[in-house]
Amino acid sequence: MATDTKLFRLTLLLMASQLLAICANGQIYMTKAGQTSFFSETPLENISAVNRQVAVLLNSANGEIAVRMQHRAFHFPNKLMQEHYNENYMETEKYPAASFTGKLTEHIDYNKDGIYTVTAEGILDLHGVKQKRTLKGELIIDHGQCTLNCEFEVKLSDHNIQVPSLVITKIAESISVKNKFVLTLKKSA
Amino acid sequence: MRKTTFSLLFYLLAFTAFAQTDLMKELEQADDSTVQYASATFKGTRIINGHSIETVGKNNMDFIISHRFGAINSGAGNFFGLDESQIRLALEYGLTDRLMVGLGRSSYQKTIDLFIKYRLLRQSGGLRNMPVSVTLFASDAHNASTSTPDLPFYTITQRQTYTFQALIARKFNENLSLQLTPTVMHRNLAEKPLDANNVYALGIGGRYKLTKRTSFNAEYWYTPRTICGTTQRDPQYTNTLSVGFDIETGGHVFQLHLTNSRGMIEKQFLGQTTGKWGNGDIFYGFNVARTFSFDKNKKRSNGNGY
Fold first, then answer.
1. Nearest CB to A79: which of B24, B28, B57?
2. pTM of this prediction?
3. Can you give the residue range of the structural domain that contains A110?
4. CB contact B175 to A (< 8 Å)
5. Which of B291, B287, B211, B209 is nearest to A76 (CA)?
6. Which regions of chain A are under pLDDT 50?
7. In the predicted structure, residue B77 carries a pLDDT above the cut 70
8. Which pLDDT belongs to residue A6?
9. Domain containing A68 — which CATH number?
10. How far, in Å, CA of B208 to CA of A175, rounded?
11. By CB neighbour count within 10 A (0-12 exposed, 13-18 middle, 19+ buried), where does A39 fall?
């Protein structure tokens, strides 16, 4: 009898949490103009590029996050590098976008302004290779706007990105990636 | 009771999983609302002799060194043409991502050429569908050779030749790109008695990528001998056929080719090609393009990170 009551309570709790999840589902923060830049540093050559059209969705109810960017939207100061990035390294025709889907492990009160350290666990999909990653970042909440900053490294070999021996000294083995996403509450459709 | 609990729990898990993919789906759907331009239709701004639809990027400069060795049929004494060569040196600059200008000097006929090139239409998919890329090209070639009794120049105007082209290309897939180039050329001085001042020509060119960094290119320039009953090209001159390979390595694009034209600019390869493929009158040559970037925002992603 006691176990049944417990189970009943648990069921109720689950139903309630689900109801909450559904209700809170509208609380989605988003941007279509997030910034992602990367930097490759070697003694011979520094390579950098920036993408200002990164799409990000963050569900404040459960901490789920989705990030997607088109490789063609990366801008390089040197246009030849931009072409090579798409043609030779990322094979953009085959794999047009890079994405991350995951979940923030911390529970954040999005109504309270402040700076929070956050961790996202999820899948980084780049050049057709999916890698499980845990990324550390910072979430700044300021009057309903949340800014997500995150820096991480991508090893080229992890994603099967091949560098010909001729230019191997000009491209770093590990590329540092910086993200800055300014998210605002999505108006419920 | 237990069953109900488990099924509910399963439902909840399924719901969570569904919500997760839903976020990504929403982002993927947004892809169709952007314009996707075809890029790298050709590796360089030239197919072989003639221009391709590509332009140099904004604030980027190409330094192009082109060589055409002597005729392969000139014999062992001339090391099959390698003993001599014609050269063209050029600086070509991108004012915007769509507009470029160039200045070149050819040793052949001591010619200085100036050109301007504008990308009018860009092939695209997604939100806007455009089947082809179109680039407009205009050039002036100034023949700076000494005036001789055979070819006397009396005024500076006589030394000028103007070329206008519409370059129309389509990248059919990752490997294959083709280009058609209708051309009108006006020479202020027709250098041979049968040459006309106005010349109409059509260029057909293309590339097929063999690997990520190499491609096979071919190009044919057809200049009809007569057009509407009027002779426009002296019969001693021929049409230009060229075949070659593009090889790219970092900041360089190497183009190695065989062509029956000694000249590397429109004025020369459209109306004044002397070689004949059938006779082995062909020239081995190369173009090497080195790109430099003068973008002032180069350090942008270095400083504060963005």
1. B57
2. 0.81
3. 2-185
4. no
5. B291
6. 23-25, 189
7. yes
8. 75
9. 2.40.128.110
10. 32
11. middle
